[in-house]
Amino acid sequence: MAQLTGKVAIVTGGATGLGGGIADKLAADGARVLIVDIDESGANSRAATILDNGGAASAMVGDVSTEEVAKAMVDRVVDEFGRLDILVQNAYGVIGLQDGSALETTVESWHKGMSLLVMAHFLGAKHAVPAMQASGPPEDYDPGPWEGHGLRHGDPPPREIGRIVNISSVHGLLQAAGTMVYETGKAAVNGLTRQMAIDFGPLGITVNAIAPGHMVTENLEKLWKDVANEEGFHLEELQYPVRRTGTPHDIGNAVSFLCSEEAAFITGVVLPVDGGLSIQLQENIVLELKNYIQENPGLKTFFDGGFGTGDRR
Ligand SMILES: NC(=O)c1ccc[n+]([C@@H]2O[C@H](COP(=O)([O-])OP(=O)(O)OC[C@H]3O[C@@H](n4cnc5c(N)ncnc54)[C@H](O)[C@@H]3O)[C@@H](O)[C@H]2O)c1
To answer: 43, 35 in Cβ contact below 8 A?
Structure first.
C-alpha cells in the first residue's frame, strides 16, 4: 500500500512549479489532493493529469491570502473527500510587489507580500487544524510494533491526526540583497512553523517547513532559457555541493516523507532541500569560482534579465 493511502491533502499553489510537483507526488503516494490556486486553468489541468495517472485530485480557484478562501478550501476538501490530514502551504507570487531594501519597498508592497508569505500560513492552519481534529487518525492507523516507553501511554493525547508542511526557502535562512519583503517573510515562516509545532504537537499534528534551494520550475526554466546561456547555468550548478540545482520532484519527495507515518517524531524542523547550498562557507564560493568566471566571460545567468537587485561593485 502506498504510504499516504487514505490521507487527504490540500496543496496551495499546486497548479505549477513546486506545488505541482508536491501535488503529483502526494497523489502518486496515495493521497487524495485538493489543489488551491489563483490559476484556474493550471489547477484544473494539474488535477486532470493526476486523474489520468490513476490518482484522485480536484481543483479550486482562490487567493489563499484571504480568510474567506482559507475557510472555503477546508470546507470544500471535507465536503468532497470526507476528511483532512495534510496541509501544504506553498502558494506564492505577488503581482506588482515592489520589493527592495527598506528604502525602496512601499507600505503597500509590505502588506501584500506579508499577506501571502506569512498571513496565509496562519489562516490556513487556523481553519485546517479543527478539520484535522474532527477527521481523527486514518481508520487503519497502526502505531507500530513498539510497546514500551517511548510511545504515548496513560491517557494519551491524539496521535497521527495531521501534518502541516510550510514551504519556506533558503532565503529564510540566509539573506540576499534587495528583497527585504521576501527574505523577512520566509524567515517569519520558519518562526511560525516552530510556533505551530509547539502549539499543535499536543493535538497530534506535526508542523515542519522545507527550505528549497534553486529549484528549476516551469517558470524558472523559461527564465533561464530566455535570458541565460549554458555557461551561466553551469555557474549556478557549480555553487551546489551536489553540482546540480533542484527540481519540483525533489520537493515533492521531501514533503511526502514529512507527511508519512515514518516522520511522526519530526516536528518544528526547517529542512533545507538545497543540495548542500546553505551549509557552505559563503566567502569561499566566489573565490573558488574565479577561474571559471574568467574562462567564460560571456556567461549569462537569469540575473541578466533583471532578476537580482544586488550589485556589489
Ligand atoms: N522555485 C524555487 O527555486 C524556490 C526556491 C525556494 C522557495 N520557493 C518557494 O516555493 C513556493 C513555490 O514557488 P514556485 O517557484 O513553485 O512558484 P511558481 O510561481 O512556479 O508557482 C506558484 C504557484 O502559486 C500560485 N499562487 C500565487 N499566488 C497565489 C495565491 N494568492 N493564492 C493561491 N495560489 C497562488 C501560482 O498561480 C502558481 O501556481 C513559494 O513559496 C516559493 O517562495 C521556490
So the answer is: yes
